[in-house]
Here is the input.
Amino acid sequence: MEAKQKSEKFIVPIGPQHPALKEPGHFEFTVDGEIVTNATARLGFVHRGMEKGVEDRNWTQGLYLMERVCGICSHVHAMAYALGVEKLANIQAPPRAQAIRELVAELERIHSHLLWLGVAAHEGGFDTLFMFSWRDRETVMDLLETITGNRVNYSANVLGGVKIDINDAQKDALRRGMDFLEERTKHYLKVVTEDETFLGRTRKIGVMTFEEATLLGAIGPTGRASGVQRDVRVDSPYAGYPDFPVNIVTSDAGDLEARFVVRIKELYESYRLVREIVDHLPGGDLTVKVPRRIPEGEVISRVEAPRGELFYFMKSNGTDKPERIKVRTPSLCNWGSVLTTAIGHKLADMPMILAGIDPCFSCNDRLVMINGKKTETQVWDWEDLRQYGIEYYK
Amino acid sequence: MDTQELLQQALEIVKEWTIEVSQPEENRRDIYIEARDIKPAVKALLIDNHWGYLSAITGLDSPDYQIDEETKERKIDPDKGKLEVLYHFCNRAAIATLRVRLPYTDAEIDSICEMLPSASFYEREAMELIGVNFRNTPITDHLILPENWPAGVYPLRKTFKGLEKKTQG
Here is the structure.
């Protein structure tokens, strides 16, 4: 009887509804008592076929499509794409545009890390921290709206530069915002490193050693929390990063606490960079002209998204449409490493370990429009939306 | 070590399997190898010499386009052309890509999951979307496409123009 029980596997399915964040993904954990012995994932619940879709659109339309790959880090996708196209066309955006790209990227990192801090705190049962960090996140969301006009898909990039400029009033607002957030962040660092109950959920939990992280290709704050010195902003600076360099933040602990500490310390770096860019913004133009047809070639464009290295492989066939765009988002990399290291941990720690890599599943593929006056709800497809845009701006 | 030295080091490591090398960008080398050599080459690069990390696997469909003289339309010759699998390894700013060409009729390559379990995601993605068969890959369930997706239909192939209405999920 006992022998039979030992040979039976018990599989706990988690998801697709709300496995860690309020986004869909399905995981199957094989358990032996409380201990996880195997872990697999099934993604694709929000797969929209964008890599295929972009092959049927021209290079400019592609920019707007790729910006919508992710709702949290939309700017880095547009930036990676725009930088790739500029490399293919052998042109460079002006210094002022590159600095503004970096500025928006760092603001986006601030919003993303604060968002994650709240979500991870919530998973650990610390809802007060969740409420506070999301309240403070509104500061940076308002700043992003002030300078780009949008809270989510900022649409700051165009091929060959940016379409937004920063004026003095906005600079002041940015300085004030950073001062406020820096004070708050000091408090958060204290909380996540000193609060006994919370440390019970994070210290020495979900440890990924340096060797594992290096081999499995863990990237971004997840890798850096295990002491891996990988940051595209440092290794291969792009956009404004050669002029406004960033200091890499790492920790050797490799546990969940280290992932909190690394992300929070990266916030300080982002505040510093935002201030520096605002104080020393280069003058000059915002854009250069980009040809409609992009010369034949293949480039790889890498940028550091809030979650880690974002990888674009882009192939042009010499026409006005891309031949192939391959996107590898940081979450995919980190899923691989975290599911491998999940083995041997307690099932009860899985939500925190999953949330620990800051997973991102992407968003909707259609627009649902709720008309204020009438009570009907309409679902629009791409063509309706396009037509609406044309009519609106006529 | 600077970027060029790192790239030189990578070229040395996989020298015995190399067919040809190209330099698409300053910080990149594309190293063409045979499909049968993928496991030893990855082992030498990643496991034995710890050169960088596997950043992504790109599946690429390179069909043979025929340009119609009159209409200027590009048509695909279904019998010619090839698939390509690109293993991108990053080490600081340097990117070494192991490139394997595969014919449509025999689009098979050994899985590298044995050495690198985290490659499973990339292999599953390439398997579903571009139709490369990874021999001995541990998980073959759908990662991205729906369960009722027809077998043998690969959306990222250039010949794919959409499913028939009745089979749409």
Observations:
- Chain A touches chain B through 37 residues (CB under 8 Å).
- The first strand of chain A starts at residue 10 and ends at 14.
- Chain A is about 50% helix and 15% strand.
- The beta strands of chain A are 10-14, 26-32, 35-42, 157-158, 161-162, 297-305, 308-316, 322-328, 367-370, 377-380.
